[in-house]
Fold each of these.
Amino acid sequence: MQGERLNKRNAWYQAVWRWHFYAGLIFAPIFIILAVTGSIYLFEPQVTKMQYKDMMTATFTEEQPIEVQKESFMAEHPDAMITSIRLPGEGESTRIGWMNKDEMMYTYIHPETGEVLGTRSAESSMDLLVVIHGTLLGGQIGNWVVELAASWAIILLITGTFLFWPRGKNPLRMLMPKLGKGRQWWKQMHGSVALWSSLGLVIIISSGLAWSSVAGAMLQWVSSSTNTGTPMYAYAFGAKPESTVTTKDVAEDVPWATQADLVPASSPSSLLPIDLNRVVSEVSIARPYTVSLPQGETGVYTVTSAAGHPFKEATVNLDQYSGETLSSVTYADYGILGKLITVGIAFHEGRLFGLLNQLVGVALCLGLIFVVISSFVMWRKRKVGSIEQMKRFEDERIKRIVGILILLLGVTLPLAGISILVVLLFDWFIGRRKLKAEVAA
């Protein structure tokens, strides 16, 4: 009886290990790339400020009206099409975004003197890291691959916890690895580091999926359908003309929770559009914030504050003619899903609790790199025939149950779910062929 229970336990272990081992083997290189690029990009704000320090920083006690600062810019670039103006926080300069043919440019103005401090391309020197991190330089297909790898990373953390769990012993022992030798040491360190990192990695991975093509779109749909993100035209005043334009289409520095919100339209009238001074006087949100200018006759002024702390996020739309507030949404107005994802994204980007957040992010990335490297070392140090020995405990029924459980987990991770279904169908097809061959023999 005891031998039966042991064999059954080994069968469960083998069935879970099979998914854990092969998925880890396939996606290990991508995990390394994401960890390296992500850990470096965490410090993008410091790197960019250091690179453009003379432009981006300014000491001032008073500010000129924003229209006066705009005029200083227009004196140097009379034909420029301004798209946005970012009002500065303490020690910063005003940033004007404008189009130079097909290239977005940033020009920086001293808030007190109106002096033009310099102009640069909107593309950062670190933008290549973002492209690699998000698409592996593979465009849309690369984005799907990254999403697939991120989805499987969550499954790997869950299956790994099951494999490392000390059955019949104190679970707290998982947190402190035994000091063994050789492969045993690597196995203990692999499990302990993964366990210590798991909560932070799940937050980072889950929040990263909010930007992905498939899971991100699903999250936006769920948040809109259940009003757990932000309702359309949330906390608005008066009837709104119909619109098919989303906030992310017309504005910069947009919070995740309001990216897919439809933007209300201005009501064209004989009045001239209000100026930027009026816009600034109408809004009272935390600086720095960005004013994106109206696009066309029915466009609106969209004011967003997303670069700082998540709890200070806001998205405000103003009628370009009357200055009326058409909609106003802050972090406090978000639904539960919108709040969770917003905080997760801030943690992911290292903005939630300053430099310490960035250092924690680096530690988690280094932990992921170690887990990948240690898994490779364990594979290289395995005993000859160890995989074949594990196959002795294969149980087709348990294999199917584990496959179905992982498939159910994949329902919340669409691309992973599809890949799991493909593997299960392939496994079923191979199993049928093997059965037919045995019957024929």
Note: The chain has a mean pLDDT of 86.
Amino acid sequence: MLKKRKSLWWLLGPVVLYLLALPLYNRIEPVVLGLPFFMFWTLIATLLTPACIWLAARKDPLWRSDRQRTRGDDE
């Protein structure tokens, strides 16, 4: 069952983004857009999280079939 749901790997994206930021936590330099790099990285990771979740749901065959079944019942 999980072999058909490869799109769920997108859900690891936010976890990896936040974990990659940990070694950079105790730094102020470099400054990006007026923010310390860690804060900038956290902001980017937070903004990318919904995109990763959307991609995982959009490509998931179970989600797609459930959505089509729901749309079919409404009509």
Note: The chain has three helices and two strands.
